[in-house]
Amino acid sequence: MSALRRIFRREPESLKGIRDRSAVVRSAEIAGPAFPRPVSGEEARAALERSRARRAAANGAA
Amino acid sequence: MQPWPGEVLDERSGEIAVGFAALLTRQAAWRHRRVERITVLSHERVRRHVSVDFTVPESHREELRLSESEWVVPLAYLAKRLLVNFDLFMEDEAAVALLRSDEAQLISRELLYVMLDLDTEDAIEEDIAPLIEWILAAGPAEAEQVDAAVGELEDALGPLPGFSALAAQLTRGFLLCAVLGDVSRRRVVKFAYDQPLARPGRSVHFYDTPGCTQAASYHAEVEVPDEMRARTTDMVDDLTGRVLALGPRDTDRPAIHYVAEADAAARPGLSVSYGAERGRFLVPAAIVAWVIALGLALPWLFADLPALAASPSPAIAILLSSSAIFSGLVLRSGEHPLVRLMLAPYRLCLAASTVAAVVAGGVLAFHGSSGTLAWTWGLGSLVAVLSASILTVEAARAPAAARDR
User: Do B169 and A33 touch (CB under 8 A)?
Assistant: First the structure.
């Protein structure tokens, strides 16, 4: 029966949802985050220092 | 006294996170090329080989330094699930050290704080440490709950696009970080792992390719098993059905080149439609099936079967028996498991045709009644013609073998 089904099969009109109709091999990886903009090292370092100061202050208050 | 390696990482995690923030928000700027090779091991398993070709920008090398002679480089995000047969190598096949997931968490934690601080200028009064720890420790089943908690934080603080994007991926995965002894030049790091087919199937496979957003240039190629061809190889966005890149048709080593933007609204993947080559099984099987079909149908239509049955050792019974021997030769097995799976229905067709021939020959040889002869040969002819037609159509559709083989 599967041989007959294959002979009379119709190709789907759209590839939308092709993943659900196929044997799927998931990647062990996941996509990288879609960051809104590039971050420079200086910006990141300043953010780290602010964040650490805030955390230190919070810990001190606690 | 020398600090322990864990203490060094703890101390350096903030500085490394600064380097990561710059590198991960501009992945294509320093990762030149990424190549994925997919080897189909069986109908249930593939092995994916990934190579990442990169140069760490000079301005960020000091940030990534772990010790005098070690630098930490982020290679990819791996999903939080079991890895099978995972290997990590340099370009010369030398093994590479990698950070354990709990070690990578030290950097990820600082990275989350950095992204949060970049997203909001307002001082954060509430303690978000429990949320960040939950993000890092969450299992795959908790992803939606963590997303909801991040959404609530956004309701309180305003949009946090960088933090929420990173939090979503660190809830579902972790950073794969290599520890390298030299980042002063262009390097190639390779890793490989086995993956099962989530729904074992026959002819159409879909390989997720999240890595296509993570380098300036992305190449994917598929090693097709012997006796098979990749009929079509397309890079497809599963969400919209849009074909992003077309690969060659009917080849045993399809390759595709594509670079996508890191776009959360797209789900790119490699859709490969496989076909068994016609020359090894389908054409010989179709020929044998037509010989059997003619051997059954012509006598059924034009010969006097009861008279043949009455004659001693009818030649036609011998002819039909010999066709069974040919079928046995064509029905041989021992190919790649995926080829065997794909050809299984057609082997059944040939087997049905052979059984019809043997039964018809047997009824004739054992002098069956005229009614039994008519039914057996009629049904046998029908089965044999149907099988031969199926095999012929599939042989015509199937790809030819490569001329250079």
Answer: yes
Q: What is the pLDDT of residues B96-111, one digit of tens each?
A: 999 988 889 999 999 9
Query: Are the beta carbons of B258 and B212 closer than 8 angstroms?
Result: yes
Shortest Cα–Cα distance, B308 to chain A (Å): 34
pLDDT digits (tens, 9 = 90+) for B31-69: 999 999 999 998 889 999 999 999 999 999 999 999 888
Cα–Cα distance measured from residue B60 to residue B12, given in angstroms and rounded to the nearest whole number: 14
**For B120-181, where are the E strands, in sequence order?**
173-180
Q: How many CA atoms lie within 13 A of B232 on its CB side?
A: 13
Model pTM score = 0.82
Q: Which of B80, B202, B208 to mutate to test the interface with A (most CBs of A within 10 A)?
A: B208
Q: Which helix (H) or strand (E) holds B20?
A: helix B5-24
Could you give the 3-state DSSP secondary structure of residue B189? strand
Q: Is A46 left (phi over 0), alpha (psi -120 to 50) or beta?
A: alpha
Q: Tell me which residue in A2, A28, A33 faces B79 most closely, judged by beta carbons.
A: A28
Interface test with B, best of A51, A52, A59 (most B CBs within 10 A): A51
Per-domain boundaries in chain B? 5-30+53-82+91-185, 278-397
